[in-house]
Amino acid sequence: MNDWQRKSPLDWETYVNKMVKVAAIEKHEYEGWVLTVDPVSASVVLATFLENEKVSISVVLGHAVQEVEILKEGDDEMKQRLSCIFAPEESKAYSPEEEEKRKNALKTWLETNHIPVTEQGESGRTLCVAGVLTIDPPYGPEECSSSNEIILSRVQGLIQGYLEKQQ
Amino acid sequence: ATMPVPVPVGVLRLPRGPDGCSRGFSPTSPRFQALLGGDAVAAQGARAALRQRYLRGLAAARGRPTRFCLRAGVQVDAVFGAADVEAVAFQVDALRTPLGVQAAALLRCADVLAYSFLL
């Protein structure tokens, strides 16, 4: 285990949304915006924006990392851009206003049916149901996550029914 | 003939473990607190957020042509399949090797220095 792998999650978090240069073993070097550091393997996930609107993702395995040097901080626009990179494909079909409308409509429907729901996450785009299930944009059954399978399948069924009634 | 009523099985209740919570892992146990350091709650929150983003990244990689940088300057191309929980290996499809294309293969994480793909 190297020094990088021994860092705490709070330490690794300080590198997220920063442009860094990663020095790896065998004289490899990688540069890019840090999307995340996997706490299990300490692997650094970097994003590089190419000219043709494409994004190149590089993952440097934790055991290969020698040093990570911070080159610059990302501004709010960059942070927003980075947080959207791994978002599910479908959310790109909705505009921010449409997304907000869908979120509020679903939240209201859940509250009307006496299901506790709150907003959380960066910019409040994620819904949290009963503290155990989260719903990301665009708020369909596929965007639900929970560690409880029973609650997950129940809520997915409810949302499926709700969306079908909307049509 | 009627079905015989099943005899209830006796429930064996084990004594409580040293941490006080007989279910085993307790996030508030002194042992877990010591593992995470003083900032246990914040550290665990950071850990969860980092891991979630990483898992979403793995999901995004699935099915995409990926270049793997192995040791000694070796590079191979393949289609990303999956990663396991403990970061022991990657499963890939259509691995291009000097001996031909392997339909499916496992790459050991210890052999991989880095990998990259386009979104």
From TrEMBL, chain A:
Nucleus is among the record's keywords: yes
InterPro entries: AD, Gemin6, Gemin6_C, Gemin6_Sm-like_dom
GO aspect biological process, one term: spliceosomal complex assembly
Domain AD, chain residue ranges per copy: 69-167
Top-rank taxon, per record: Eukaryota
Main localization (coarse): cytoplasm
A GO cellular component entry from the record: Gemini of Cajal bodies
Localization in the cell: Cytoplasm; Nucleus, Gem; Nucleus, Nucleoplasm
Gene3D superfamilies named in the record: 2.30.30.100
Free-text function comment from the UniProt entry: The SMN complex catalyzes the assembly of small nuclear ribonucleoproteins (snRNPs), the building blocks of the spliceosome, and thereby plays an important role in the splicing of cellular pre-mRNAs. Most spliceosomal snRNPs contain a common set of Sm proteins SNRPB, SNRPD1, SNRPD2, SNRPD3, SNRPE, SNRPF and SNRPG that assemble in a heptameric protein ring on the Sm site of the small nuclear RNA to form the core snRNP (Sm core).
Oligomer and partners: Part of the core SMN complex that contains SMN1, GEMIN2/SIP1, DDX20/GEMIN3, GEMIN4, GEMIN5, GEMIN6, GEMIN7, GEMIN8 and STRAP/UNRIP. Part of the SMN-Sm complex that contains SMN1, GEMIN2/SIP1, DDX20/GEMIN3, GEMIN4, GEMIN5, GEMIN6, GEMIN7, GEMIN8, STRAP/UNRIP and the Sm proteins SNRPB, SNRPD1, SNRPD2, SNRPD3, SNRPE, SNRPF and SNRPG. Interacts with GEMIN7; the interaction is direct. Interacts with GEMIN8; the interaction is direct. Interacts with SNRPB, SNRPD2, SNRPD3 and SNRPE; the interaction is direct.
Protein name from the UniProt record: Gem-associated protein 6
Native organism: Uria aalge (Common mure)
Upper classification of the organism: Eukaryota, Metazoa, Chordata, Craniata, Vertebrata
Name of the coding gene: Gemin6
UniProtKB/TrEMBL annotation, chain B:
GO cellular component labels: SMN-Sm protein complex
Top-rank lineage group of the source organism: Eukaryota
Organism: Uria aalge (Common mure)
GO biological process: spliceosomal snRNP assembly
InterPro entries: SMN_gemin7 (IPR020338), SUZ-C (IPR024642)
Gene3D superfamilies according to UniProt: 2.30.30.100
Name of the protein described by the UniProt record: GEMI7 protein
Leader sequence residues: none
Domain SUZ-C residue range list: 1-29
